[in-house]
Fold this protein.
Amino acid sequence: MPIHLDRQSTTPLVQQLTDQLQAWIERQRLRPGARLPSIRTQARTLAVSASCVIEAYDRLVASGWLEARHGTGFFVAERKPGLEVEDAQPWGEAGDGSWRQFREGHGELLKLGCGWLPGAWRAHTELAQAIRQVSRGSVEDLFDYCPPLGLASLRQQLHKRLARLDIPAGPERILTTQGASHALDLLVRTLLRPSDAVLVESPGYYNLFNLLRQHQVRMLPVPRTASGPDLAALERLLAEHRPRCLFINSLYHNPTGTSLTPKVAYRLLELAREHDLRIIEDDLYADFQDGPATRLATLDSEQRVIYMASFSKTLSSSLRVGYLVADAALVARLAELKMVTGIGTSRFAEQVVGQMLANGSYRKSVQRLRVRLGQHMAKVLGQLEAFGWEVFCEPYGGMFVWARSPGRGFASLERIALEHAVLLTPGSAFDPEGAPSDWLRINVAYGQDPRAQAFFRYAGRPSAS
């Protein structure tokens, strides 16, 4: 088996060995069941360390090329259908051939309607530093289970953060979750039963709609206006259906970018008291706040509001750290369900977030995000106006603009977008019933990309300059 390792190459010796062994197997020069040279023999022949050979063999075992037999050695594995190399390649969000063909012809698509920030905007240095600090810390933070309510040090930091928002919440009323979606799932499982009715905003959060459908909960759509839910429509639905809960984005609503006004907020709390209604306030975009804001949890004196937020939008979606605030009795029930269904949350992830909150690096990173988002928001709004687009409402913060090009339906917009390598999120996705819509969610963080600029221009009104 001739293996030639180039010690002048920038490719590590382990990777060279792995690649060449795999190439031999692919060309069927080594057939299933064939035994490879022992680690010691291979290391001596190639003049490399035993650890180099071990790592190369282990990589090939992990990828299905080799099979390790205890006390015997390493053997070429039989390739199972579906484990071919080409199937292991990343295909992006859509795992079908058409997506791959499109990418080959047009390059990477710009996801203009996505719900996350560009990777380059993330606090890479601060996050890496926090991970290193936690990794050097106590062993229990790496290996032990997390307590049912969440890590005490993180909940103490959250208590301080909530106090700055004028939300009274002792640590005993705070439950950590694996992001906002997990918090919603726990709440739906605990508070609702099949055929229960709930109020949801339209347009609104499509993952919430999917979750409610999964649990066979009836959704009563309430139109979202520039100042919050349509109160007249909401009052009619309360009188006719006696719903159990209202799900709401108070601040930087997804997808319209609108925020609740004080007048609407006070009336919502009055209606909640009159109709014995629980309000679930999803404040996922809380840390994008720059200036005064109206939150129901701040005004709530009867603990009818369940408040929830997350660090996935500002810090890292892969860490999956969120939290909710509710009365102590409900938090205890939710914590029990959390343990039954998932054996708690990630102690390591919560320690990392807690570290960034404690040392101030998180606060500094979101300050930079606010400034950057504010600049991009102003630019996108000006460009949409110049190109003849209609904006539902001019947000004063957050990531999203809800806009449309008058006279164009979604099919027309989608065609133009694909011609410019832009991927849109259809407005119908934000409708509880999936009704067609010519409105689009635009993430302003991507609005200055040349592909987005070309799309805005060509999809605008023909008369626009």
User: Anything to note?
Assistant: Residues 361-386 form the longest helix (26 residues). The chain is about 45% helix and 15% strand. The CA atoms of residues 389 and 406 lie 7 Å apart.
